[in-house]
Amino acid sequence: MATWLAEFSDNFGAWFNQAWASLEPIMPNVAKIPKDFLEATQQTLYMTFWTALWSGIFGILLGVILVVTHDGGILENRWFYRILDQLVNIFRSIPFIILVALLATTTRFLAGTTIGSKAALVPLIAGVIPFFARQVENALLEVNPGVVEAVQAMGTSPWGIIFRVYLKEGLPGIVRASALTLISVIGLTAMAGAVGGGGLGNLAISRGYNRFQTDVTLMSTILILILVFITQFIARRIEKRVTH
């Protein structure tokens, strides 16, 4: 097995280098820096994965809390809902570039620096959580209230209603919200790159725009679009599977 993997890796590496070198006639600057593009793509995937993971966990948690505490919710608490709702609105409205500046001190404290992919995670997660939480809330509010009332009348606990009704019935909507959020995250990682976060966005600006290497900017854009299309494709397949 190990021998097969090593052979596959060598063959794939040789094919990749040959294919990348073939770009030289149309994208000469791109053909010279395959390692830079590989590293930038890895950084983009790194930022996307960890942002999606933590934003997904806390976004779903906040979304559920918003649904169960709003007027008529199974754990109705108007004051708590209004405070949390306003906090979500405030953080969701702050432009990402400004959020990066506002959280610079926090980023330095948590990551030890304000530059690089690891540092970019702090503003990325802080900016995406409220956005995803609102999307989850909207998805769960689409669940038939009659089903919630029927299960509640049977004496089911709030936790049971959350897991057996809201999250189960609202799963297709959550999948759609997750896809939309993930696409937004990919776009934000490109923006993070423009302020020193690394990734394809940083490569497009520092190498493509600043050095007038248009082909580098174009290839960075193409790779970002490929990530978006892959995300959309996977999300649609998952949505079809979970839709009743």
Q: State the helix count.
A: 12
Instruction: For the record, give the distance between the C-alpha atoms at the N and C termini, rounded to a whole number.
Output: 40 Å
Write the H/E string, N to C: HHHHHHHHHHHH
- Return the CATH topology: MetI-like fold
Mean pLDDT: 87
- The proportion of strand residues reads under 5%
State the domain count: 1
Pfam families: BPD_transp_1 (PF00528)
Transmembrane segments: 47-69, 90-109, 115-133, 174-196, 216-235
Family: Belongs to the binding-protein-dependent transport system permease family. CysTW subfamily.
Organism: Abiotrophia defectiva ATCC 49176
Keywords:
244 residues, elongated, D-methionine transport system permease protein MetI, transmembrane, MetI-like, 12 helices, single chain, mainly alpha, membrane, 0% strand, MetI-like fold, cell membrane
Structural overview:
It contains twelve helices and no strands. The protein is mainly α. It has one domain (35-243): Orthogonal Bundle (MetI-like fold). Helix 3 (34-69) packs across helix 10 (171-194) and helix 11 runs antiparallel to helix 12 (214-242).
Summarize the structure.
Helices cover 82% and strands 0% of the residues. It has 244 residues and is an all-alpha fold. The protein has one domain (35-243): MetI-like fold (Orthogonal Bundle), CATH 1.10.3720.10.
Q: Which helices and strands, and how do they pair?
A:
Elements: H1 2-21, H2 28-31, H3 34-69, H4 78-93, H5 96-102, H6 104-111, H7 117-141, H8 145-153, H9 158-169, H10 171-194, H11 199-209, H12 214-242
GO biological process, one term: D-methionine transmembrane transport
InterPro entries: AA_ABC_Transporter_Permease (IPR051322), MetI-like (IPR000515), MetI-like_sf (IPR035906)
Domain ABC transmembrane type-1: 41-235
